[in-house]
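Priority: low. Protein: BMP family ABC transporter substrate-binding protein. Input follows.
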Amino acid sequence: MPKKLTLVLTAIFLMIMTACSAKSTDTSVATTPGSSPAATQATTATPQADKKLPRVAFVYIGVPGDGGWTYEHDQGRIMLEKELGIKATTVENIPEGPDAERVFEELAQKNEIVFGTSFGYMDAMVNVASKHPNVKFLHATGYKTSPNLGTYMGREYQSAYLVGMAAGKMTKNNHLGYVGAFPIPEVIYTINAFTLGAQSVNPDIDVSVVWSNTWFDPATEKQAAISLLDKGVDVLAAYQDSPASIQAAAERKVWGIGNDSDMNRFAPETYISNPKWNWGPYYVKTVKSIMDGTWKSEAYFGSMKDGITDIAPLGKNVPADVKVLVEKKKQDILAGTFEVFQGPLIDQDGKVRYEQGKKMTDEEILGTTWFVKGIKGVIPK
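Result:
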């Protein structure tokens, strides 16, 4: 090969190698030792996302598999994650008491927002909130608030009234039963609303109440249900998170009413309906307000109109005329033309608590410690 051609080819080769070397040097600047460009991009993107999205945690009294209370809260969490792109932390099966306070303390050190989903968490959340003023705490069903602690609840009594109407139409012997969870205001006023709804279509109704003192204990709740069934009630309602009561009723071929979530699948042949929760919109709205800096502590008491509570579809064996009756009253509630707790309201001892036309205030409803006329049972002190 002629020397001149050899020199030309050598020069071209050196130019190509120099260009490749320069390209390699540029790439190494964009990476860190031992990482690929893709890994570096993920590393730098994550902190930016973390700054925009708060860390959120939920504390559950039970497990989502309960098919009731905790299941519906978990559905709300899922909606929150989908709408805001947040991956929340969940802690399940946390009993009310000292263990709860320990869990809330640990979560407060790692999260900006903490939701507690049981009444009995109240004092634990109050104590932990006082130590972490920069963390927002939201407590379901409680009544104590502070600058960084709010409460949230829905007017489940509206749904309970509608279910009571259906129960009043379905009974044959006018004797209904109700398995109460704990003798706290939210349970008491729900039983009252159920009774008033039943009496609105059947004034001869009476409702026998027993207490399980549980939120989720199927064995105990079933025994409580059986004690009422043995007394001859032909419609049985319950306030617990499990379907144990309506399953016990189904075994006796007695109409059953569940709680918290649509429980039709547990006793489809004898199912009437039940109050149903929908927490998702509240969780989304609340977290958004915290993110944009507009959140303020409050005692939120939502309604059927807000969508936080509703009535599950009436069972397949509930007559069409009953479904029409209940739907009409539901529309009255949504339109604001009907109030559940409006006088005359008479307690089980015959005392007039509210005169004709007088409405109970929210504070009075949330502080209810008495049963309406027609309820057989005592409220333990």
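The CA atoms of residues 46 and 52 lie 10 Å apart. The longest strand covers residues 149-154.
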